[in-house]
Amino acid sequence: MTAIAKQVEDFLDTSAPFDTLDSDQKLQLVKHAELIYVTADNVGELQQGYPALFLIQSGQFSVQDSDAPLRHLSEGDYFGYTSIIEKRSFPLSVSVDSPGLVYRFDASAIEPLLEETAIHHFFDGLRNNALQNHAISDTNSMWLYKGLRDVIEKSPVSVAQGTSISAAAQLMTNKKVSSLLVTNEDKLIGIVTDRDLRSRVVATSLDTSLSVDRIMTPNPAQITGNRTLFDALALMTERNIHHLPVIDHQSLVPLGMITASDIIRHQRGNVLFIIGELSKAESLYELTRLSWQLPHYFSAHAKKAGDYDIAGKILSQATDIMTRKLIGFFQQSRFFPAE
C-alpha cells in the first residue's frame, strides 16, 4: 500500500460512516480515491470525474452541489452525495475560502455502499439536514447553528454504575446539577435526574445504599458533540425529555449534558430578541444601549463562515430599524421639543 493510500485509509478509519466498513470494502474504496490539495487555482479539478463523493480533510470551502443553498464546509464534511443518491446530475460550484486537502471517491465505488442501510441513512440524513438548515437560515436563528461542543459549559458530572444512590444524590447537590450520567468503563449506560430521586427513591422509601443503576434510566437518548443545538432541540422535543447527554462521536465518551434550561438561555441570547427590543426602543438612550449588544452577540455566536451570511442579513435589518428610529427621534425633538 502506497503512502497516499495509507493516508486515505487512516482518515476513513475516523470518518463516519466509512469507519464501519470491513477491510475489503475499505480497500475497494481506497482504490477509487484521489487526494487533491485544492486551491483557488486548481479548484476546477474537482469537476473532473464528477459526479463523485468528496470528503474534506482540511481547509474551508463554499459549496453548492444540489437544489439546497450554498453551504460553508470544513474538515470532516462531505459534498457531492446528492447527485449519487438521487441518480441525477446537479451542477457543482466550489469556491475556496481556505485551501486544503479533499478526497474524491468515484461514484461507482460509492453506489454499492449506499445499498447498506446505515450508510444510506447517513447520507440521506446529510441531505435532509441541508434542507433543514436552509429553513433555519431563513428565520435568522443563528443560535440554532451553534455546535454542542461550543454550548457545553461544564465537564460531565457522572458516577460509576456501582455508586450508591445516596452518594449520587450528594454529588448532584454538591455540583448543583439536576441530572447525573451513569457510566461503565467511561461509556454512558444511563441517566439519573432529580425527578428519578423523587419518584423512585423518596416516594417508594427505597434503600439509598443500593447502587444507582437501580433507579437510572438505561440507554437514554443521547447526541454526539458534532451536532448542533437545533439537533438537540429536535431530539428533546421528539422524546419529550429535558436532559440530553452529549457524547464524543468517535470515542462515545460523555462530554456533558444539554438541558431545556440551557436551550432557553441560548435562545434568550438570540439576536432576534435584540431586534425586537430595538423596534420597541422609546428613547435615544435605549436605542444606543441595545445597539451596543449587537457586536457582542456576533463575537459570541458567529464562529463559522456560514454564520457571516446570516450576520449580514441581521445587521442590515438592525440598521434599517435604527435608521427609522433615529429619524423618528429627530422629528420628535424638532416638532415636540422638551419643555
Explain this structure to me?
With 339 residues, the protein is α+β, with helices and mostly antiparallel strands. It folds into 3 domains: 3-138, Jelly Rolls (Sandwich); 148-258, CBS-domain, CATH 3.10.580.10; 269-335, no CATH class. It contains 14 helices and 14 strands. The protein has helices spanning 3-12, 23-31, 81-86, 107-110, 117-138, 148-151, 165-175, 194-202, 229-239, 260-268, 271-280, 284-291, 293-301, 305-335; strands at residues 33-38, 52-56, 60-64, 71-73, 78-79, 93-98, 100-106, 158-160, 179-184, 187-193, 217-218, 223-224, 243-247, 254-259. It has a 4-stranded antiparallel beta sheet. A 4-stranded mixed beta sheet has the order 8-9-10-11. Strands 4-3-6 form a 3-stranded antiparallel beta sheet, with no helix packed on it. Helix 9 links the parallel strand 12 (223-224) and strand 13 (243-247). Helix 1 (3-12) packs across helix 2 (23-31) and helix 11 (271-280) runs parallel beside helix 14 (305-335). Mean pLDDT is 82; it is low at 132-140.
Largest sheet: 4 strands, antiparallel
Number of helices: 14
- Would you identify the regions where 5 or more consecutive residues have pLDDT less than 50? 132-140
The CATH topology annotation of the largest domain reads as: Jelly Rolls
User: What overall form do the CA principal axes indicate?
Assistant: flat
Strand content: 15-25%
CATH class identity of the largest domain: Mainly Beta
Helix-strand blueprint:
Elements lengths: L2 H10 L10 H9 L1 E6 L13 E5 L3 E5 L6 E3 L4 E2 L1 H6 L6 E6 L1 E7 H4 L6 H22 L9 H4 L6 E3 L4 H11 L3 E6 L2 E7 H9 L14 E2 L4 E2 L4 H11 L3 E5 L6 E6 H9 L2 H10 L3 H8 L1 H9 L3 H31 L4
Parallel strand pairs: 8-9, 12-13
Antiparallel strand pairs: 1-7, 2-5, 2-7, 3-4, 3-6, 9-10, 10-11, 13-14
Helix pairs in contact: 1-2, 11-14
